[in-house]
Design a protein that fits this description.
The complex is a heterodimer of chains A (247) and B (426). Chain A is an alpha/beta fold and 247 residues long. The mean pLDDT of chain A is 91. Helices cover 44% and strands 22% of the residues of chain A. Chain A has nine helices and ten strands. Chain B is α/β, with parallel strands linked by helices. In chain B, the strands form two sheets. Chain B has a four-stranded parallel sheet with strand order 2-1-3-4, sandwiched between helices. The model of chain B has no long low-confidence stretch (mean pLDDT 96). The chains are: A alpha/beta (247), B alpha/beta (426). Chains A and B meet through α3 and β8 of A and α19 of B. The complex binds iron/sulfur cluster (2 copies). One iron/sulfur cluster (SF4) binds next to loops of chain B. One iron/sulfur cluster binds next to loops of chain B.
Chain lengths: 247, 426
C-alpha cells in the first residue's frame, strides 16, 4: 500500500511517500500564502492509496484531498519512535510552535505540552532576532556557538525581545554574545517545558530548528539524557502521519 | 430565538434594555445555539425541553418573572453556588442564577475593571453596563458573596448600579467557619423578609428544602446515566441542563428532568448512546461555565470525544449534595443549610482537598478515560489549584490536559489541536 503523509505547517508543507511502511520519497515546500496549493502539487505528484494529513492545515487538507487527519502530537510521536525505537521523548521546534512529547512503551504518547499561543521561542522568533542583529540564521547560530558567554535576554515575547535586542546593539553590546543569549533563552524555556512533561532520554529533537547547531548544542548540554537529531528533522511529522495509518 | 411568535419588544423596552444591542445578543446566542446543539446526532427526546426554554430564555421565562413581580412577587439574582436558593424561595421570592457566560460590552467594562480580570466577572459587568440582560433588570435584589478577590471587588462597582447585598463567605471550613456562615444565613433571612414582607416559617423552609433537593435529585439521575458506556446523552446537553437549572421554574424543571432521566435510563438499558462507539470519555473540572459558554464541550465533542461529567459549579457541585431533610425547626434547618453549603468544594477555600478527591472519584464513577482541567484566564484560585489537580489525577493513573482560556473564539484553533491530541493519546 502507498501512503502519502502531509504535514501542513505555517512555514512549510512536508510530504512523505511510504510504500508498505517504508519511505520511498519525501519533499518539502514553502507554505507561502496558500499552503493548500503547495500540498496539491504533492498530492498530484505520485500515485497513492491513502492520504494522512497533519499540522495546522490538517482539516483543510482532509476536506480537499480526502483521507484522514491526525494531530502533530501523534504524528511526531509515531515518526520519532519509528526512526529511533528506543526514544522516550520528542522535542519539535517548528516555525511557529513548540511541542514536547513524552513517550511510553511502543512510542505511545503519554503526555505533551504545546506552546502555540505565540511565536515566543520558535523558529519565527529566531528569524526576527537574526534580522534585528543583522545576521542570517546560520551566522547567528555560528556566532552564538563561538561566543563563550551570552547576554541575558529578559523577554521571550518576540515584540519585546526585538526592541531589547535593538537596544543592546545600540548600546554597543557584542552581537555574538547577544546571539548566544537569544539561543540560551529559548533553550532554557524549552528545557523547563521538557521537565514539566517529565521527558526522559533519549530525546528526539525534530522540526526546522533542529537544524540550528547552536540550539542542538544548548539542548544537548542542558538535557539530562541523550539527544538525537534525525537527518531530515523537518519531515518527522509527515513521516509519522503516514505511518500512523499502518499502526 | 428570533422566530418567536410573540413580540416581546414592549416588555424588553419596559425593562430598559438597549433594544438594538439586545436583538444583536439574542441573534448571536441563537446562532451559536443552533450551530452547537441542533447539529448533534441522536439526542434524547427530552432535550427538546431544553431547546424550548433556551428558545424562550428572554421571552416566556421573562414574561413569567414579569407577571410574578406585577403580582407583588420579588426576584433575587445570585452569582454563586453558596447563596442558598432555599432561603430565597422560603421567603416567597424566586431565585435566578445570573449567567455571565459571554463576552459583551468589554469596552465599557474595561473602563471600570482591569483587562486582566476573569471573563466571568467581566461578563457579569458587561451584561449590566450593556443593558442586555432582562434577568438583571427583573432582579429586585442581587446577592453577592466574598469568594474570590475579583468578584468581591467587582461587586462594589456593580452595587453602584443595582441593589446588591453581599454575604461574607468564610475561606476555611472549620467548625467556627460553619458557625459564622450560619450567622450570615440568619442575616440573609432578615434581608429577604424585609425585601418580600413575608416571614420565613418552618413550613415554608421545609418545603423549599424539599423542592430544591428534588431538583438536585433529578439532575443526579440525569448525570448518573452518563456513567453508562455508551453514554446516553452528550456533555453539551448535560451541561445545558445544569445551566438552565439556575433560572428555570423549579417544580417544572424537576419534572422535565425526571422525564429526561426516565428516557436516559431506558437508553442505557437498551444500550443506546449518543457518541460513536469507542469515543473517548472525558471528565472536565474547573471554573464554572455560565450560559452560553459551551466552548470547551463543543471542542471536545466535535473532535469525537464525549464529556461524561463536570466537576464544577455548573455540574456536580450544584447537585451532588443534598440538604438534610430531617430538620423540624428553623434552627435545625439553618444548621443543615450551613453544613451543606460549606461542603461545596470551591477553589476560593483553603485547603480544598475535597475537590481533588471528588475529581478522582468522579473520573472512576463515570468511567472517564481522561480529565481536562479548565480554568478561566486570570482566575488565580483555580489556576493555582490546577497544579494540585494535575498531580492528583496523574497519580491516580489518568491522563490530564490543562487548559486556560476565556470566552473568545480566538484560541479555538489551538485548543482544538490540543484537545484532539489529548483524545488521540487516550
Ligand atoms: S467557583 Fe466558587 S466562587 Fe465561583 S460560583 Fe462556584 S462556588 Fe462560587
Ligand atoms: S472564575 Fe475565578 S476569578 Fe472568576 S469569578 Fe470565579 S473564582 Fe473569581
Amino acid at each position: 500500500m502507498r501512503v502519502l503523509g502531509l504535514d501542513i505547517g505555517s512555514r512549510s508543507v512536508d510530504a512523505v511517500w511510504l510504500e508498505d511502511g517504508r519511505m520511498v520519497d519525501w519533499a518539502v515546500a514553502d507554505s507561502g500564502f496558500d499552503p493548500g496549493s503547495a500540498a496539491a502539487v504533492f498530492v498530484d505528484r505520485a500515485a497513492h492509496d491513502a492520504i494522512v494529513s497533519t499540522g495546522y492545515g490538517r482539516h483543510g487538507a482532509r476536506e480537499r484531498f480526502g483521507g484522514t487527519a491526525v494531530t502533530e502530537i501523534t504524528a511526531y510521536g509515531v515518526g520519532a519512535a519509528r526512526l529511533f525505537p528506543h526514544a522516550s521523548s520528542v522535542l519539535d521546534i517548528g516555525g511557529q510552535d513548540t511541542k514536547v512529547i513524552s513517550l511510553g512503551p511502543g512510542g505511545k504518547v503519554t503526555d505533551f505540552e504545546m506552546n502555540d499561543k505565540c511565536a515566543a521561542g520558535t523558529g519565527k522568533f529566531l528569524e526576527v532576532m537574526a534580522r534585528a542583529l543583522g545576521f542570517t540564521l546560520e551566522e547567528m547560530a555560528e556566532q552564538g556557538i563561538a561566543a563563550s558567554t551570552g547576554v541575558s535576554i529578559s523577554s521571550m515575547c518576540t515584540v519585546f525581545a526585538e526592541s531589547e535586542v535593538t537596544g543592546l546593539v545600540h548600546r554597543g553590546e557584542d552581537r555574538a554574545r547577544i546571539a548566544r543569549g537569544l539561543h540560551e533563552s529559548i533553550a532554557k524555556r524549552t528545557l523547563s517545558s521538557l521537565k514539566r512533561v517529565n521527558a526522559q532520554g533519549p530525546l528526539v529533537f525534530a522540526g526546522g530548528v533542529a537544524k540550528n547547531p547552536a540550539m542542538v548544542a544548548l539542548i544537548t548540554d542542558g538535557f539530562a539524557g541523550e539527544v538525537l537529531v534525525p537527518a531530515e528533522a523537518q519531515i518527522v511529522g509527515a513521516y509519522g502521519a503516514a505511518l500512523s495509518l499502518a499502526e | 430565538m428570533s422566530d418567536q411568535a410573540v413580540d416581546y419588544h414592549p416588555m424588553w423596552a419596559e425593562l430598559g434594555l438597549d433594544l438594538p444591542m439586545h436583538d444583536a445578543l439574542l441573534e448571536a446566542v441563537g446562532g451559536m445555539y443552533g450551530a452547537t446543539f441542533m447539529t448533534q446526532n441522536n439526542r434524547p427526546e427530552g432535550t427538546g425541553y431544553l431547546d424550548f426554554v433556551m428558545g424562550e430564555v428572554h421571552g416566556l421565562r421573562i414574561k413569567e418573572l414579569h407577571d410574578f413581580r406585577k403580582a407583588g412577587g420579588k426576584v433575587v439574582g445570585t452569582y454563586c453556588l453558596y447563596v442558598p436558593e432555599e432561603l430565597i424561595r422560603a421567603a416567597g421570592a424566586w431565585s435566578i442564577g445570573i449567567c455571565a457566560g459571554a463576552e459583551w460590552a468589554y469596552d465599557q467594562v474595561e473602563q471600570i475593571l482591569p483587562r486582566n480580570t476573569c471573563a466571568l466577572i467581566k461578563s457579569m459587568m458587561g451584561f449590566k453596563l450593556g443593558k442586555v440582560c432582562p434577568y438583571l433588570e427583573e432582579a429586585d435584589l442581587l446577592i453577592g458573596e466574598t469568594t474570590c478577590d475579583g468578584k468581591k471587588k467587582a461587586y462594589e462597582e456593580l452595587g453602584k448600579l443595582q441593589n446588591l447585598y453581599v454575604m461574607e463567605l468564610p475561606q476555611m471550613k472549620r467548625a467556627k467557619d460553619v458557625a459564622f456562615w450560619r450567622s450570615e444565613l440568619v442575616d440573609l433571612i432578615a434581608k429577604l423578609e424585609e425585601l418580600t414582607g413575608n416571614t420565613i416559617t418552618a413550613e415554608s423552609l421545609k418545603a423549599s428544602i424539599r423542592e430544591v433537593n428534588d431538583k438536585r435529585r433529578a439532575l443526579q439521575r440525569v448525570n448518573a446515566a452518563r456513567a453508562a458506556v455508551p453514554t446516553p446523552i452528550s456533555g453539551l446537553d448535560s451541561l445545558l441542563a445544569v445551566q438552565v437549572a439556575f433560572y428555570d421554574d423549579v417544580p417544572r424543571f424537576t419534572k422535565m428532568m425526571n422525564t429526561l432521566a426516565d428516557e436516559l435510563e431506558k437508553r442505557v438499558a437498551d444500550g443506546i448512546g449518543v457518541a460513536p462507539k469507542g469515543a473517548k470519555r472525558v471528565l472536565i473540572t474547573g471554573t464554572p461555565m455560565a450560559l452560553p459558554n459551551w466552548k470547551l464541550h463543543q471542542i471536545v465533542e466535535t473532535a469525537g470525544g464525549v464529556v461524561v461529567g463536570e466537576e464544577m459549579c455548573t455540574g456536580s457541585r450544584y447537585f451532588e449534595k443534598l440538604v438534610d431533610e430531617g430538620g423540624a425547626t428553623i434552627e435545625d434547618m439553618l444548621d443543615d443549610l450551613a453544613a451543606k453549603y460549606l461542603d461545596i468544594n470551591c477553589a476560593c477555600f483553603t485547603p480544598n482537598d475535597g475537590r481533588l478527591d471528588d475529581v478522582v472519584r468522579m473520573a472512576r464513577e463515570l468511567n472517564a478515560d481522561g480529565v481536562i482541567d479548565y480554568s478561566l484566564q486570570f482566575c488565580g484560585t483555580y489556576q493555582i489549584e490546577s497544579t494540585a489537580v494535575q498531580k492528583t489525577v496523574r497519580d491516580a493513573g489518568l491522563p490530564v490536559l490543562s487548559i486556560d482560556t476565556d470566552y473568545s473564539a480566538e484560541d479555538v484553533g489551538q485548543l482544538s489541536t490540543r484537545v484532539e491530541a489529548f483524545l488521540e493519546m487516550l
